[in-house]
Amino acid sequence: MVGPVGLLQVVRGHGVPRVDCKGSSMGEIMGTVFNIQRYSIDDGPGIRSTVFLKGCPLNCKWCSNPESQNRNPEISHRDSLCSKCGICVQVCEAAAITVDEAGVHIDRDRCNVCGKCIDACDREVLELMGRSMTVEEVFSQLQRDTDYYESSGGGVTICGGEALYQPEFTFALLKRCREVGIHTCLDTAGYGTSSALQRILQYTSLVFYDIKHLDARIHRELTGKQNGLIMRNLELIIRSGVPVVIRVPYIPGHNDSKENIEALAKTVSGMSKEAKVNLLPYHRFGMGKYAMLDRRYELAKLLPPSKEDLSKAKEIIESFGLACEVAV
Question: How far is CA 304 from CA 62, 252, 283, 299, in A?
Fold first, then answer.
């Protein structure tokens, strides 16, 4: 979940970025970043800085960061701050914005993300989600907290979106961090090429690895993609010897069945008894962001799981000899 701490002050007026385009050096490789969250304690050991990359090939129904899905910058609107003045409508040369009593409406097909509406709004209703940055630009921000990393056993985590969706940028940034002794964590759902993942693992200290469902057909229904590549990449990580924590989003009525939890635990334990499992209970904290991006949230009526159900799932996983924790 993206918090307010360390939110990037994005450059207004930026258009569509270059993603994974190599410059004359590794430090000039470009990536699309939508947040750098400092002082994070939920994305790996110790105090960390988490880099959120934009773009994801999966389309999980429960995603709490809809701003991470599209690889290109996009404009969000916070209607609770809107005075309905209509200035954004006047400056929009693409005629993509309308304002009514409900707030701002953006025609995403018309919008060219020029940023003029953001510049014109003095109430910060509109915000550009995502900007193009070089590896060195991101690294310069991450370096500011080296003392915290060292004192707490922390480091840098790269996630998304999907970090493997921008493989050259992820590789170069992790390499840059490891060159100066910063602990690195890759947070991924595993949907990327195995060759790219293998390169990235060279500079990865820890992997957080999402598994949504063991059944390929149901996985496709829930995320838009089958899980064959994801499971093959998990085997690759385990063979590499890089420590891995399996993270399972626990979504009532979707992947919380006893059969799926048992299949997951059996599969993971068959690959490695050393792998740890974290259950991530479903929440609706990101629901409001869908409206800010003019999208519909499909699981609006779904309630979070009970502590009893989570406890049962934890017991099943532990019965296969795996360490399991339920995220708070």
Answer: 11, 7, 6, 11
Per DSSP, the three-state class of 15 is coil
Coil/strand/helix, residue 249: strand
Q: What is the DSSP string of 71-106?
A: SS-EEEE-GGG-----HHHHH-TT--EEEETTEEEE
Q: Compute φ and ψ for 88, nearest 5 degrees.
A: -60, -35
Which domain-ending residue is among 86, 107, 129? Answer: 129
In this predicted structure, the answer to whether residue 14 has a pLDDT above a threshold of 80 is: no
Q: Provide the CATH number for the domain around residue 275.
A: 3.20.20.70
Residue 183, token pair as written in the block: 């602990």
Residue 38 burial by Cβ neighbours in a 10 Å radius (0-12, 13-18, 19+): middle
**CA angle at residue 11 from 8 to 17, to 5 degrees?**
100
pLDDT at residue 291 in the model: 94
For residue 323, what is the DSSP state?
-
DSSP state of 11: P
- Domain holding 81, by residue range, is 74-129
Which pLDDT tens digit goes with each residue over 23-39?
A: 446 768 999 999 999 99
Who contacts 289 (Cβ-Cβ below 8 Å, separation ≥6)?
A: 64, 65, 66, 67, 76
pLDDT value of residue 253: 97
Written as six digits, the tokens of 86 are 């209509």
